[in-house]
Amino acid sequence: MTYPGFDTVLDSCLRVRSGEEVLLLTDEGTDPDVVAGLTGGISSRGAIPLLARMPMPFIPGAEPPRAVAAALLTTGAAIELTSLFVGSSKARRRASAAGVRYLAMPGVELGTFRDGGPLTVDFDSQRTLASAVGAAWDRGSRFRLTSEAGTDLRGSIENRAGRVLDGIARADGQYMAPPDIEAGTAPVEETTTGVAVIDGDLLFMGRGPLPEPVVMHFEKGRMVGVEGTHKDRLKEMMARCDDERMSNLAEVSMGLNPLGTICGVPMETESALGTAHIALGNSIAYGGTVNAAAHLDCVMASATLEIDGRVVISDGELGG
């Protein structure tokens, strides 16, 4: 099997520059074949690969060790390959503010780079779709997210900007998360009510996909109940976070990568065209105001987004 996704990441997503240092953030769960592929590719482009091996993060969004945070500030670019997501950390945000180009790719495996896989998509060509959905969030005041599985969430997005992740971090300070392509926002706090049927995956909360749906109930922007055989995956992670603010509905986003699938790799699942995901907890990096301990993404297999009563995108197709 060939793995052309390595070239896409280094050339299209990051555009590695000759002579620059590229820091790879790893832990004991990082796929060594991914490290080898990226290290070799960085070297072959005349850049300098550096490895920072850190303890496995305790929760998604955890701060890296101080030495790693300091190293991030002195490198040209960084690729996050840790087992859990740390891209919403203060350390990452400081690195981005300092001009570091950053790719968050937690939990990716060698197969994620496969020929025909989500990392071989033409990221540049997908910008049009991502920008269109992002602009709809920008213009809107109210959203409704529904799915055939039973999701029905409604809330305010008044004065909340659309947040577009198109996978491309070629300019100084850019942050992206390939293979993820998405567009979403943080709903206004204490406004969202309804039900979310999570039939894709609870990302980084056990190996996915979910065998059976988990159903989450929201009132005034907070999760007030959860049902389903696998609800303990979510409850245990929330208990680990030990922060009452984790019940906050932090994000609503639409997946836009046409080569993504719902699978055992969280970043590919989150990316898949036609999916939607909501998040609990920290909304600071997404346009919100809740600085909770972590950011927990939960993916539904297919969804329809309406903004101000008009269909924006449904099962991956733009509305009229």
Mean pLDDT: 96
User: Low-confidence stretches at least 5 residues in length (pLDDT < 50)?
Assistant: none
Major sheet strand order: 13-12-10-6-5-17-18-19
Count of alpha and pi helical runs: 7
Gap between N and C termini: 40 Å
Strand and helix order: HEHEHEHEHEEEEEEEEEHEHEEEEE
- Per DSSP E runs of 2 or more residues, the count of β-strands stands at 19
Which of globular, elongated, flat, extended, rod-shaped describes the shape? globular
Radius of gyration from CA coordinates: 18 Å
Structural class: alpha+beta
Strand content: 25-35%
Report the biggest beta sheet as strand number plus sense, adding barrel if it closes.
8 strands, antiparallel
Helix amount: 10-25%
Description:
22% of the residues lie in helices and 28% in strands. The strands form three sheets. It has an eight-stranded antiparallel β-sheet, covered by helices on one side. Strands 7-9-14-15-16-11 form a six-stranded antiparallel β-sheet. A five-stranded parallel β-sheet has the order 2-1-3-4-8, sandwiched between helices. The chain contains seven helices and 19 strands. By secondary structure, it is of the alpha+beta class. It is globular.
